[in-house]
Amino acid sequence: MILIDETEYRVATPFVLPATSVNREVGDKIMSYLNTARRPKSIILPARTIMGSHAAPRVSAFSSRGPNSLTPDILKPDVAAPGLNILAAWSPAKDKRKQFNVLSGTSVACPHVTGIAALVKAVYPTWSPSAIKSAIMTTATNFDRKGNNVITDPEGTPANPFDFGSGFIEPTHILNPGLIFYSSPLDYKSFLCSIGYDNKSLQIITGDSTGCIKPEPRASDLNYASITVPNLKGSYQVTRTVTNVGDPWSVYQVSVDAPKGVNVTVSPKVLAFQSYGSSKNFTVYFQAADPYLQDYVFGSILWRGKKNAVRVPLVVKIQ
Predict the structure, then answer these.
(1) 11, HSE (Cβ side, Cα atoms, 13 Å)
(2) Per the database record, which ranges form the Subtilisin-like protease fibronectin type-III domain (predicted)?
(3) pLDDT: is 293 or 265 the higher one?
(4) C-alpha to C-alpha distances, 116 to 28, 173, 174, nearest whole angstrom
């Protein structure tokens, strides 16, 4: 049996009968051959590995995408990780006949990130979850393995932060992020208040007698390693705090890749650190330049030091 899968997922599917699956393009060629050949034939060849047939990594068709419907001020997803046709361990509780299986989805993408987080925690045991997340996000890449082209979707269309967040995880860079965006428990409490939690609902989450402060902060004020402005009207500004985890004396200069139709400036343009663990603030100013844009636009800011580059995605929608 030949299954023509029009979804373009290209997911490896185990069959209990002699079968295979192909995408729509290949399926059309097969159907054309069946309809024109007097005696159509097929041959089953031994399995082989084909390298470099597609640009990699790519964002899978089934991957969840932004914008964040619950809290549009926070970019989701955070990062992309391997999740298509992954050879992984298989629980005997599911099937005692096999120890491994080929799987696709978040079930196999998440363990990649979890393993990296465990690696970071082993090297830096005092780092908080937000610090580890920051390191994973700011060291991610937007480019394919050849480093020449932006990551694409299965159709070959360039992907954007709503597809891959900060980018595809880079395990070789994560242990040396240079700067991190640290968020304390109090920061997250303030964030919950900003999105509508009252004192009672907040205390259910925190388990203490904490209450919301007045005036409530904005959701975009959470010290996250990405910046999203979903309702830009005229001008807007967002402040972030970065902590030096690189060389004690480090200097970073900023460069801006502004989203289309938006003027972006950063102040200050240089961050100079004199010790490990010291922190500096910077503010990003947004000004709507094209009021006729009705969709999200994307850009980034890059803090570049002597040894490190810290990239922060920018996502903006003009209202």
Answers:
(1) 20
(2) 221-316
(3) 265
(4) 41, 11, 8
Residue ranges of domains in the chain, CATH in brackets? 1-44 (no CATH), 179-318 (2.60.40.2310)
- The DSSP annotation for the chain comes to -EEEETT--------SSS-EEEEHHHHHHHHHHHHH-SS-----PPP----SSS-SSB--TTS---S-SS-TTS-S---B---SSEEEE--TTT-TT-SEEEE-SHHHHHHHHHHHHHHHHHH-TT--HHHHHHHHHHT-BSB-TTSSSB-B-TTSPBP-HHHHTT-B--TTTTT--SEE----HHHHHHHHHHTT--HHHHHHHHSS-----SSPPPGGGS--SSEEEEEE-SEEEEEEEEEE-S-SSEEEEEEEEPPTTEEEEEESSEEEE-STT-EEEEEEEEEES-TT--SEEEEEEEEE-SS-EEEEEEEEEE-
Q: Each residue of 248-280: pLDDT tens digit?
A: 999 999 999 999 999 999 999 999 999 999 999
User: Which residues, 6 or more positions from 217, have their beta carbon under 8 angstroms from its beta carbon?
Assistant: 190, 191, 193, 194
Question: What is the per-residue pLDDT for 96?
Answer: 84
Specify whether the CB–CB gap between 187 and 273 falls below 8 A.
no
Average model confidence (pLDDT) across the chain: 90
pLDDT at site 8: 60
- Whether 266 and 285 have beta carbons less than 8 Å apart is answered as yes
Structure-block tokens of residue 166: 């900060």
pLDDT per residue over 197-219, tens digit each?
989 998 998 888 888 877 777 89
Q: Is pTM beyond 0.85 here? A: yes
Cis geometry, peptide bond prior to residue 57 (ω within 30 degrees of 0): yes
With a pLDDT cut of 90, the percent of the chain lying above it is 60
Tokens of 27: 């399926």
The number of beta carbons lying within 10 Å of the beta carbon of residue 219 is 21
